[in-house]
Amino acid sequence: MASSSIFLLISAFFLFTLPLFALNVSHDARAITIDGERRILLSGSIHYPRSTTGMWPSLIKKAKEGGLNTIDTYVFWSAHEAQRRQYDFSGNRDLVRFLKTIQDEGLYAVLRIGPYACAEWNYGGFPVWLHNIPGIKFRTKNDVFMNEMSNFTTVIVDMMKHEKLFASQGGPIIISQIENEYGNVIESYGNDGKEYIQWCANLAQSYQTGVPWIMCQQPDAPSPMINTCNGWYCDQFTPNNPNSPKMWTENWTGWHRAWGLQDPHRTAEDMAYAVARFFQYGGTFQNYYMYHAGTNFGRSAGGPYITTSYDFDTPLDEYGNLNQPKWGHLKQLHLLLKSMEKVLTHGSVRSIEYGNNTTATIYSYDGKSSCFFGNGNAEDDATINFENTIYTVPAWSVSILPDCFTEVYNTAKVNSQTSVMVKKENAADDFEEPYALKWQWRDEGIEHSDKNGFVKDSLMTVEQLLEQKSVTNDTSDYLWYITSFNVKNTDPILGKDTTLQVNTNGHIIHAFVNGRHVGSQYAQYGKFNFTFESKIKLNVGRNEIVLLSVTVGLANYGPNFDLVQTGISGPVNVVGRERLDDLTQKLGDEKFIIQEVTKELAFNKWTYKVGLRGERQQLHDPLHSHRWRWFGDNLPTNKMFVWYKTSFKAPTGSDPVVVDLMGLGKGHAWVNGHSIGRYWLSYLSSEDGCSPTCDYRGTYSGDNKCKTNCGKPSQRWYHVPRDFLNGDDNTLVVFEEFGGNPWNVKFQTATVGSACANAHEGSTLELACQGGTVFSRIRFASFGSPKGACGSFGAGQCESPSALSTIQKACIGKERCSIDVSESYLGPTGCKETNRLAVEIIC
Ligand code: GAL
Hints:
Blueprint: H1 3-16, E1 25-27, E2 32-34, E3 37-39, E4 41-46, H2 56-65, E5 70-74, H3 77-80, H4 95-104, E6 108-114, H5 143-162, E7 173-178, H6 190-206, E8 213-216, E9 226-231, E10 247-252, H7 268-280, E11 285-292, H8 326-339, H9 341-346, E12 348-355, E13 358-365, E14 368-375, E15 382-386, E16 389-393, E17 397-401, E18 409-410, E19 418-425, E20 439-443, E21 460-462, H10 468-472, E22 478-487, E23 497-504, E24 508-513, E25 516-522, E26 530-536, E27 541-550, E28 568-580, H11 581-587, E29 593-600, E30 606-610, H12 613-616, H13 622-625, E31 642-648, E32 657-660, E33 666-671, E34 674-680, E35 717-720, E36 730-736, E37 746-760, E38 764-768, E39 777-784, H14 803-811, E40 816-820, H15 823-826, E41 836-842
Parallel strand pairs: 4-5, 4-11, 5-6, 6-7, 7-8, 8-9, 9-10, 10-11
Antiparallel strand pairs: 1-2, 2-3, 12-13, 13-14, 14-17, 15-16, 17-18, 19-37, 20-31, 21-30, 22-27, 22-30, 23-26, 23-28, 24-25, 24-27, 28-29, 31-36, 32-35, 32-37, 33-34, 33-36, 37-41, 38-40, 39-41
Bound molecules: beta-D-galactopyranose.
């Protein structure tokens, strides 16, 4: 090997991997110091089980390219210890491999061990068997709980130590977290809560990991635990301990989606504003919650009603594609902040107040100064005089001047491309038009009891209605409640008008009386207990009532969220109503008397059966499903409780694969035996609350503005990670619960369809397609004073005549191109104001 290539190898090693020697991590009030260097830590959450091992390297690479130096993740107890003392770290649960992938990229890691996570994860990350241990009380001074918690945290810490993953051992983990936002709920646990948090702190300390511990949203965090902030804005946060640096563990990049709700959107401008302000006001660590949020595969979505997509409007979208302009706009901010690391972490600080929420903050160190000009006013731009120069700071923005003279970045001026994402048809499946998969099907069937009340494979029979997860341990969404009773022909309940009334804590109920479906009902988002009511017909003799109760994600947040009830709570009544016509006549025509007879069934004998037959038969898994008979003809549509199966070819190329489930109702889908999550297309979000425009200015709070997708299914497309696919031979299985039509189901790829930009003079505009596609056509380009927005750009009063041809030359036929937004490159415009370049270019 030539000596130059040896040199290259060695330098590549040092560039891209962290040194494998111990790092000393310490902190003071101003900064976290790693190995003697005071650091600005730019971090992003990526939860390993919400993507796949095959996705990890590229997600982490894109995070690094986006200017992050740290990756944060929770540890998900329920994923690793789904059954007590049986641990699973395989596949996308391979925490060690995930951390090593981070380390291989030369990034640091923050490990939020919890083990309470929240995270819109089922039951907040706790395994449900925990709930069923006698005497347990969650997240408080309770020996049973504390024993289980410390058992799990010890398993994790020991594993990390064994693999030398703490920075003190040469690994990537620079910070760990114990508990999560306990301060938000501590009041509800009284004094026991206070003792519990002290116990958590002691437990964490006892591990002697050699790296600091944090407790987010814990205003009384016992020293040396560092109290950190979560929220949309944390610039005004101060930790409780004077020795703690100002850390932001969750900067919410958007918000989660839920069945029945619209899509939240947080703008790139507002994100950048929040980050810039945090560093203006002395921040040292900020973490995007989330940076890549991913997918709630399987039954991991919490709730109730969290969707399978956990997109969260993150810089990397659910599928791992760049969410532009968010990714690019933040990247530029990160690079700039990092270039100012020394002055920000060592410098002296002074500020000038200009009124109306406008402040200049000046950091000075070693003869160098850097400035932030922040305008927190939601409507008014500010014009300020700083050292005899006039600057305009747009409303709700921060300008950064690394030399306190030239504005290099303003959070409201986005110079990154906006990608218009599209779904492309699956080119591998060469169907004749129209595209249609070939389906097979199989009925699920309804459970029932025999004439003696016996139910095959039932779990138990008791004279009581039981809470759902207490019975199922949450091994399935489905629990059958079965009972029967006799009616004599003289029974007054046999009136003309009989109804079944069931009170349930949700989330969905399907009711069957004497083998006939009498109705189904689901809770509307936010109100999960409801009364189901349906007309029924009773027989003389034996009558059977079968109720199937379905959960859609267990609660993950709030005081005592673990005790939130699910399933049929009762009363369950059969009510017979009869109009007493004799009496009615005496009272006159207008009035009549109704006699009501109620049969209460709550204390009847109820037989419980967990799960679906198809679940036990493992119909979702091609290794098992072939053992059962599937039908090819007379494909039923809009029929409840049907399993469907089809095969398809993996789409060619490298773009992420999605399946469009439009037409289906509600259920669960699997590809080659891997769950791609629950789906629910028949529940549409409300028509109200979306608007075509979105003002980044003013406080964002998750659902107060900028929502999209009104009146549509909350989630139409479902991610099929490429590592679930095998070339031409793939199986999709769905269990359809409400009834739907599979004929429109389609596999597609998600990619960039076109790129738009509205870049300011002085910036460099990077434009890119994706997945090997090149720019084919420019729909619009004007350098000067263009008007309008992406999709409706128009030329202004002045423009350069040569800009279009310059951009054509630079971009057409290329996958990416870079444009210097200046008159010297794009030609003189003759405009008086600063020029802007508007482009819309097709991939
Ligand atoms: C926080 C919590 C996170 C996540 C986030 C919002 O309260 O700590 O785990 O749930 O809210 O989605």
